[in-house]
Design brief:
By secondary structure, this protein is an alpha+beta fold. The protein has one domain: Dynein light chain 2a, cytoplasmic (Beta-Lactamase, 2-Layer Sandwich), CATH 3.30.450.30. It has a seven-stranded antiparallel sheet with strand order 2-1-7-6-5-4-3, sandwiched between helices. Strand 6 and strand 7 form a beta hairpin. The longest helix is centred in the C-terminal third of the chain and has 15 residues. It comes from Tetradesmus obliquus (Green alga). GO terms for molecular function: actin binding.
Length: 134
Amino acid sequence: MTSDLSSIAKDTLRDCAKYVLFDKSGAILAANYQPQPAELQALSKVLDDRDSAIKNGMTIDGQRYEVHRFHPPLAYGRTMGCAPEASVGAALCMVQQGLSGQLCFGVITYNMPNLSARMVPILQQLCEQHLKAK
């Protein structure tokens, strides 16, 4: 993990329950939890196919999130099976030309009262400004 990016992510994503920034190889660039390599590999493929994303959702730290918005380079959704006020949101953003010369990803989860309308643009801006190769 790079300390500058870790510091920026910690500040920018302070309203997120969990976050991880990583590249296609699974190298973690910044995170506030310990993601499993297999989970990162699966997350890196979410945007490969809309039908698969909607059907299989995303798994972040062992929790399944239903994908209800699929708009590459973004996919996002929420947990289901509980009261709407208790559901947790999740978003994924992909950067084509990332820092390491390969695809990079940002993934966040967020609790109520935070909604995708606020959190997805925060993630997208962070990814554009700090994960994109310069």
